Every structure is written in structure tokens, then in C-alpha cells.
Protein 1
Amino acid sequence: MKTGTHVLTSLLVLALTACGGGEKPAGEQTAPSQTAASAVAGGPFTPDPGRKIVTVEMITDGDGSVFKPSEVHVKRGDVVRFALKVGVHNVHFLADSNAARTGYPQSPSDFLQLPGQTWDVAVKMPAGSYYFQCDPHAALGMKGHIIVE
């Protein structure tokens, strides 16, 4: 009886593993596929040789919730680093705000919750303006844009 239970348990574990949906353990996550023209987001990233990191602070204070600066000028190969100062914020490049644009991050960032947390965008997209917002604070004016020159 004990051997039959052991075999049944082993088969159950095998079946659950096979039906697990392909989840990978932490540390083995694969990055989403990106086309050559796509921005790469997450990071931290290092800019291309001769390029720079441009920091955008994410702040909530007595005056409201803002990206500081809310407009940044960059070139291909730069990195835009969104750095949480105060509050809980995310960065989201909405498709309807970026009509006819390609290469920007397609998914919003995770919510940054601890001061000092960052989320990077490696600038690989074509020249143009790319609009972003903090989802929970967009109605309060927490919006900005990256201008790729």
C-alpha cells in the first residue's frame, strides 16, 4: 500500500510539473522579445559608448506628484533612468498617446515603492516625442515626454 501511494504521489507531482504553464523559477525569467528598433526597459542599463544617463525623478510632495524634469531630450544610445524619490509611482508609455510611434516600451513598469528604486529605458527608438505617465497620478498631471533627437 505504501508503494502504491508513493507511485501515485510521484505521478501527481509529474502531472503538475508538466501542466505548470512553463513558469520559470525566480532568477530564470526570460526577457520579452524586442525588435531592433524597440526601446529596452527595466535595467539597470549602461548607455552606449559616448552616450549618457538622463535621470528623471519621480516625486510626491506638498505640491503634487510629478516627473522632474517632465521633458527630457536624449539621443539614441542614451539611457533614461526613472528614479523614485518619494511616493509610489510607475512609468507607462500609452499606445494612444504615442500614435504612429514605434519602439517605445510596450508594458508599464512595475510600481516603484522604495526611495532609490529605478527603472531604465535604453533609448533605441526613432527620433520623435514619446509620452509617458504615472498611471495612478495621470489625472493629477503626472505626465511627461522623452524627445529623441
Note: Residues 4-37 have pLDDT under 50 and may be disordered.
Protein 2
Amino acid sequence: MEKTGFRLPTEAEWEFVCRANTTSTYSFGEPVELLRRYAWSNINSHNRSWLVGLLKPNGLGLFDMHGNAWEWCHDRWDAESGDGVDAVVKNQQSRVLRGGAFNAQPEYVRSGDRYTIQPVTRLNSYGFRPARTHP
């Protein structure tokens, strides 16, 4: 029997929906000047998070994939390879975060940027975006 319901997305799932069928630095293209239309970062956030949906969505219709809050992914950070690993995560093991946050510089809210920290760490710049598992 397969599990159904909500979960954290894998790192690969998160990047797929963030990129929205693009290969550019950001889902909207390359010009960093457009970032303030799609993302809350240190250039426009006034050092706080914002309600989701106030800026433009990416090509798949998802809001705030860049910036606003670092998003937890299911994958455990593998310190040796620097890759995410699909495995059970314990509090002492680092987990992958993606997307950047309201207090991040533009280079840290790009589609390919990654961060890692232990799940016991709590900050107002961390959040999550649930994924849905269907039977």
C-alpha cells in the first residue's frame, strides 16, 4: 500500500516546479532587474516576509518560488558529495533548503541555489511548500 497525502517535495521536484520549463538563472529569465516583480529578496522586502501571491507567478502559476522564505525539502544533505539524498532525516542531519528568502541577496534566490541546515534550526526566513502524493 502506498502512502498518500501531503509531504515535503524532494529537491528534484522543488527545482522542477521552480524552473517552470526554463534553464535560465530565474524562472522568468536572466535579467536580475526583473527580480523585484517575482521575488521578495533584500532588494525589495524591507527585511520581512510577505503574503504569498502579491508578486508575479512563475510559468507554472506558482508564486514565491524565488525568495520570501527558504523552503525545506525532503532530501538529506550529503556533506561528502554536496548532493541531496532521499533518506530519512534525523534532527542532527542537515536537510536541503531551496528558494532563498526575503533577507537574501539576488544570487541566493535563483532557481539552482541550495542551502543546508539541521531541521532543529528555526528562523523566520524558513518555511515549506507541501507536495501532494496521489495513490
Note: The chain has one domain: 5-133.
Protein 3
Amino acid sequence: MNTMQTITATAIGIALATSAMAVDFTDTAPVVAATPNYRQVSVPRQECWTEDVSVQVQPQARSYTGPIIGGLAGGLLGHEIGKGQGNVLATAAGAVAGAVVGDRLGNPQQPPQNATQQVQRCRMVNDVKQELSGYNVTYRYGGRDVTVRLPYNPGATVRVSVGVM
């Protein structure tokens, strides 16, 4: 074979090989229907409210100022009243009585009282919402209806990929 025949045979071989391969192109097809698809999504949120709660209030802490001052005053008064050997006894009795009176005046007896206090309570709740997840699209091409799922609404027409063998 000469050079010209070799080139011609090669060109014919390439042409035949190319014609046997698949050819791809894009075309448009009319959309027959596009139906949206939704999925349910759980959305957690915190729900809070305020409620009144009954609590017991304890009386104030005891004060020692009243018994000390009462004891001193009672001791001085007992010392003034007492005579001779009874002076020590009168001073001691006056101090004890003064301390008791001072304690009663400085720390009046108060029973525990009920009071209302506002308390904030919270809990987690799940709301369910509908979220668009895509479209079922039916288009007509070559006399046949084809349904595909797309993430968007294509409108009146859709681009289709066509392969020819």
C-alpha cells in the first residue's frame, strides 16, 4: 500500500469508528406537570412561662443585742435594789430577768409565714413544619411521558439530555 492509500484507509476507519459511537446532545421538552414535594422537619424551641410558687419564709436570725443590753440594765437595777449580802443575788437575778426581757423585745416570736414567689419554668418542645424538598416533574418527549424528581420547578419546558447510538 502506498502512502495515499494508507491515509485514506485511516480516514475511513476513523469515520466508521466515530459513526459507531454514541452522540449526545440536549433538547427541550414541554412540562406536563410539576408537583411540589414537602417533608416534615422538626424544629426544637424553648417554651418558658412564669408561675407563682408558695414558699415558707423563716423569721430573721436572732439578735443578741437585746439580751446583752437587757442583762446589763437588769444587773445594774438589781445591784441598786439589793442591800448587804443580798446585793449579789439581786444583781444576778436582775441580770437574768433583764436578759429575758431584752431577748423578748429584740426577738419577737414569729411563726414561719407563707409567701408567694415568682419562678420561671422552661421546657423544650418540637414544632413540626413543612419544608419544600423538590418537585416531581412530568415532561413529554418523543411521544412518551417521563417523570423525574428535580430540586427546582423548571417552568414550562425542561432541558433533556438525548443520547443517540
Note: The chain has a mean pLDDT of 81.
Protein 4
Amino acid sequence: MHELSVAQGILGVIEAERRKRRFDRVVGVHLRVGALSCIDPEALGFAFEAAAEGTCADGAELRTETEERVLTCRACGERVAADHPTPACPACGSADLSLAGGMDMEIVSLEVESDDEDPGE
């Protein structure tokens, strides 16, 4: 299950951001997962919950949205949903299409909290 290593990578990014931005906890993580990324959002949720235990993201809500497959016409630059009913560009008719989206995963946003109390003040 590669979702566990993906979850650990997400936590690594969260920890780096926590050190840089100095927040205490993460309460929400919003991800965009490509339809072709080979990531199962449900399995990733279970893996994230397990990996986040005892970290600043313990108990954080993981929200995922799916990025659909997108094709780009090499002839005219038109972007087309990959599930378009014909194998040709609707704008120019070219069949020279390339895959342009739906393969990645990205952290869109983090919802964080910080303790407002500073013992030094």
C-alpha cells in the first residue's frame, strides 16, 4: 500500500511548514488528487490517520478532491476533458491530443491553529 508512504510525505511537508510558519496544530488538510495518480483517497485517509498519530496533524480532517483527466490539443492548445466522447479536439478537429492533467497530487491548503499564549510575554 503506497498510500502510507504518500501520507508520510504529506506529514513531512506539514512539519516543514510548521517549522517555517510556527503553528501548533493542523486541523484540516485539503488535497487535490489526480484521477490517474494511482492514489485511492479512502486508503490514503486511513494511512494518513495512522501516520498522523502523535504528530501535529493528529486528528486532522483529510479532504480530497479529484482532478479529472485533461487532454491538450497540440494543434490549437484547447484543453479537453479526457472523457470527451470523440478522440478529436472539439475546437479544431485535430486528433493530436496529449495528457495534460489528472496525474498529480498536491496539498491545496492546510487549516492550522496556534496557541495564542506566549509564556515570554
Note: The CA atoms of residues 68 and 120 lie 49 Å apart.
